[in-house]
Amino acid sequence: MCSLQGKMASGGVSVATLWTEVNRYGQNGDYTRALKSVNKILQECKDDITALHCKVVCLIQNGSFKEALNVIHTHTKVLGSDVIAFEKAYCEYRLNRVENALKTIESATQQSDKLKELYGQVLYRLERYSECVAVYKDLIRNSQDEYEEERKTNLSAVVAALSSWEKSPPEDLGLPETTYELCYNSACTLIGQGDLTEAMNKLRAAEELCRQSLSEDSDMTEEDINSELAVIHSQMAYIMQSQGRTEDALQLYNQVIKLKPADVGLLAVTANNIITINKDQNVFDSKKKVKLTNAEGVEHKLATKQLQAIELNKALLAMYTNQADQCRKLSSSLQAQNPGHPRPVLIQVAQLCREKQHSKAIELLQRFSEQYPESASEIKLTMAQLYLIQGHVTKACDILRSIEEIKYKQGMISALVTMYTHEEDLDSAIDVFGQAIQYYQKQQPGSSGHLALVREAANFKLKYGRKKEAISDLEQLWKQNKNDIHTLAQLISAYSLVDQEKAKSLSKHLPSPDTMSFNVDVDELENSHGATYIRKKAAKVTGDTLPKEQGQGDMKKKKKKKKGKMPKNYDPKVAPDPERWLPMRERSYYRGRKKGKKKEQVGKGTQGATSGGLAELDASKSASSPPTSPRPGSGATSASSTNMVPPRQQKPAASGATRKKPQQKKKKAWFILTTKSLFDSLKTLLRILLYTLDV
After folding, report:
1. What keywords are assigned to this protein (predicted)?
2. For residues 296-310, b (16+ Cβ closer than 10 Å) or e, as one string?
3. Is a pLDDT exceeding 80 seen at residue 594?
């Protein structure tokens, strides 16, 4: 260490004066000038421990953590591990070298309070929450200073993390909720326990405390207060989303995003939760929100489970946007990070199913279930569903029966029996009942679930004619309840096919008909309002209504013949044409069409001449001129009727104004029917639920 007397630094300033400047600048918080003075001292005394220590502190205060760490590594011999242990560990912690910081702290021989504080922070970042709780308990118990409230806040944060990520029941530490930070952490603990209603009340209380405490500061603007409240509002939105109030949650999430808080972790979690609400809808908005989850430093702000959930949602979004390669890349990366986790594999399977590659999907699931049998439950359920989609019901049943965790659940037993019955494999269905009854006989004998299962097995066997096999089940049920007459009747019916003597002996236990009779008026019951069949009373025979003679009422009524439709211009006074049934060309009076001649020659002759008088000069058109050839049967009629047109040939005379336009054909209406295939209706079960995250 340099002597303070007579030692002059460069520039003619003594070392003592430089130390005075360092002290003054340090008290004023001007670490940049203090660093310059320390450097001048080190030019004269290169290995001065105090000067080197001060230089490291100044660099840390200025945020130059790498440079401070370089100074420590350069002067390792001078700066011992105990002297500079806290500063070294802090630099490593701020540079996100958390494992190195832990080693530095554990290697220190003297554990000061500030080193223990840093030790707790390091353990929290490493997600070793149980050890972290012990460290903070020791600090709160053995220290008394102005930082006690901060330590309690950190302890409550650790308890909230334990409840949220490890699902461990929280320990009642008696922490007061006097600040909004403590109240917020208490709400997070309740969310981890699933008590969302009480958690919302805590968050509202935290919001009120935050507004009160920040409004006392005159320098805080409304925008600053809202930025501080952003984390509370985001957690409120998560509770709303969990309760199904997605519209309210989305509105609150967007308000947080618009504030643009400085916390990249908060932005990432909020954006991820918006993506989970959008799902496969509003994909354009989800793509914009994904960019917020990729911000720099997010990986150091969030827990491992939060980061995994965000990556899972990215993979799902890539699948929904038909980015197959990106989906495979993200899911493969997730599987490499956590090989035993089933969800990355399920995402890959879902992508293969979208590409109609069910066989490859089943192979992938089979490999994973063999490698990680402890995580095979979800995988095997998905395999069973894929087999059902392909129509392999028996294979699906075999897969389901291999899942030990849910093999004897009542829902699983019901599904297996239904599928085996569909395949007409009654023996396998009865075997499912038998194994389940044996399991309940060992685990829960005589319970309601056990007896209900025996009852269903007996009814199933009786329904499909397996009365002999149902005897043991019916006997077991009857022994449990001797007063069950219905079961006794079923048992007697079953024994009647096997052992009639046994059936007769059991029939003695049946009650007598007198005890079974109920004083019921059958007629009144049949005529009651709720009866489905009401017997009609016989009508009284009076003198006026005599019975009909035999055969008289059996005569069938003759159907009246409907009159045929007549032509519109039909005249009953005119005899019909006898040749009306022949085609026009075969009739005797047909002369063919006159080609090239029009009724009126319009536009012919001299200019200004009219052709209206030509019709009057045509003798063939006059009424008095006889036809060129007589029609058949015209000799029997009068002269006035010889020019009459038969009804089939008559046309109603109508003017141009009253002439009806030909009716247009109506266009046919086509209905486009969209139907879902079996795969489209079932593949929704393959979708991986988007996981929402809290802050």
Report:
1. Cytoplasm, Endoplasmic reticulum, Repeat, Ribonucleoprotein, Signal recognition particle, TPR repeat
2. eebeebbbeebbbbb
3. no
